[in-house]
Amino acid sequence: MEQLKGLILSGGKGTRLRPITYTSAKQLVPVANKPVLFYAIESMAAAGIREVGIIIAPETGGEIREAAGDGERFGVEITYIEQDAPLGLAHAVLTAEAFLGGDPFVMYLGDNLLQGGIDDLVSAFRANAPEALILLTPVPDPQNYGVAELDGDGRIARLVEKPAQPASDLALVGVYMFTARIHDAAKAIKPSGRGELEITDAIQWLVDAEATVESHVVRGWWKDTGRLDDMLEANRLILERVERRIDGELEHSQIDGRVIVEAGAVLERSTVRGPAIVGAGARLTDAYIGPYTAVGRHCVVESAEVEHSILLEGSSVRGLDGRMESSLLGRNVHIGRSTRQPRAYRFMVGDSSEIEIL
Questions:
Q1: Cα distance between residue 243 and residue 260, in whole Å
Q2: Which residue ranges form the domains of the chain, and what is each CATH number?
Q3: 56: Cα within 13 Å, side-chain hemisphere
Q4: Cis omega (within 30 of 0) on the bond before 140?
Q5: CA-to-CA distance for 75 and 60, rounded, in angstroms?
Q6: Which residues lie below 8 Å from residue 275, measured CB to CB, with a gap of 6+?
Q7: What's the predicted TM-score (pTM) here?
Q8: Taking the CA of residue 5 as centre, how many other CA atoms within 13 Å lie in the half-sphere pointing to its CB?
Q9: pLDDT of 169-192, one tens digit each?
Q10: Do 358 and 327 contact (CB within 8 A), yes or no?
Q11: 3 state DSSP class of 203
């Protein structure tokens, strides 16, 4: 099989992560202080893929270009491909046809995380040379995904996008491998009821054409980080793998377990219980940071407790009576308690936000 190319999809509006994604691309929201998109690029590089195309949207493309650059630091060469509108995954494939040419390729959704990378899957794709290799995983809510129905021999019989009554619990994971024949499939299908060219329909076209379409059931974890709960769960899963490293400055502070404290971070009279990460330039004072928390660069936590949360760069949490948990704070968000009387809550909140006071 010829050299594989990579295609990472980083368009889309990220409506399920608003208001965070009103001002930032969803693929750049960090998990364990690293943008989700970077995990996809690193997976490509680790699998020996050197030419990577990234599909970007007009609204967020500039931000993604600035973050990922030309790919040199990842060991790949990045080509940016603008998709005018999010008209489906198969439409993204057609948008990238000039870049992909006749080469086989791996397509990776830029807001997905897959445990263990794609090395073994790429090897299987090279060795078996099917027209398509799709990844499947059992999910509790298959109606929210593309779903695969297998025949008695375990082959793909049918694929349906977000079925009202799923025939199985096997959802398509956001990593696919194709030969150039997928371009013919994408051109042959019609838009779905939601006006998109669905990749499930394109793969079904291959199945109906009796092309070889292999499936692989993912044994490790996979996460689509499109929602808050999924972001927090992905953050937890990644932090489970960190090794203890203390490069910052500790003053009368305690570190328990697997914790990364990056250079330039300062902890004063604080406790961090891992797994957790504290970014460069962060300052913790009289603070408690509990397990599964990622404190971003230049954040401040003072006289407060934070657990099972993600704090993006430049945010601060000060003077809270109780513990903040299961939260995602955007960049430069400031949370604190006023000492003025009479006491009252005062908020400035973006669209589609959710606040819970216990």
A1: 7
A2: 5-238 (3.90.550.10), 244-336 (2.160.10.10)
A3: 23
A4: no
A5: 23
A6: 239, 240, 242, 257, 258, 259, 291, 292
A7: 0.86
A8: 21
A9: 898 888 999 999 999 999 999 998
A10: no
A11: helix
